[in-house]
Design a protein that fits this description.
Elements: E1 16-18, E2 25-27, H1 30-59, H2 64-68, H3 73-79, H4 82-95, H5 106-112, H6 116-130, H7 135-139, H8 150-161, H9 166-177
Antiparallel strand pairs: 1-2
Helix pairs in contact: 1-4, 4-6, 4-8, 4-9, 6-8, 6-9
């Protein structure tokens, strides 16, 4: 294989970066460099968002409605990339597979029955319960990159990308996070 130029040429276009001496060379373009930077941003937002949700729940005794009203939380959720919001929904749904899920009180269940946030959380939880693969299969090989796999990934993504539903998806993430935040977690429960 002949050496490729390190600077753009009419013949090759973008510069090439060798992966190893035995593999082909991969083009480095502005497009894939921007994608990589965006993915790093998404990955960095996920723990920040989960930490803020966890703190809001902690400060409000796991009350979803009170926690959702914490100043700045809805703005933080709205400012997060849709991919970050989708990853939080999918990841917290996975964690609900083991242990009790909302609600344990039948009266509370009646109160939540018509809440779109509860319905979204419950559907994601049910997908997690029904899933037969492991954590790697649930999240996908490229997590948090899109597309997220399976019906739960599609539901998480479509909900997170609908900016009109930010208050709903914020509360759904809290419904998913609240029951698991009090117990020890293992990645592949």
């Amino acid at each position: 294989m002949r050496d490729l130029p390190s600077a753009p040429t009419p013949e090759y276009g973008a510069p090439y970066l060798p992966i190893s001496s035995t593999t082909r060379r991969t083009p480095v373009t502005v497009f894939n460099a921007a994608q990589a930077q965006h993915l790093l941003q998404v990955g960095g937002q996920i723990p920040d968002v989960i930490g803020a949700l966890d703190q809001a729940l902690e400060d409000n005794g796991d009350s979803i409605e009170d926690a959702a009203d914490v100043p700045g939380l809805e703005e933080l959720w709205a400012d997060a990339e849709p991919e970050s919001r989708a990853a939080v929904l999918l990841g917290t749904a996975w964690l609900t597979r083991k242990g009790p899920f909302w609600p344990t009180d039948p009266e509370e269940e009646n109160d939540m029955a018509g809440d779109p946030a509860w319905m979204l959380a419950e559907e994601l939880h049910q997908y997690a319960l029904d899933f037969t693969g492991g954590a790697e299969d649930w999240h996908g090989a490229r997590f948090p990159a899109m597309p997220l796999p399976g019906p739960a990934g599609a539901l998480s993504s479509s909900s997170a990308f609908d900016r009109d539903d930010n208050p709903v998806t914020l509360r759904a993430a809290m419904y998913l996070l609240a029951p698991v935040r009090r117990r020890p977690l293992a990645y592949d429960q």
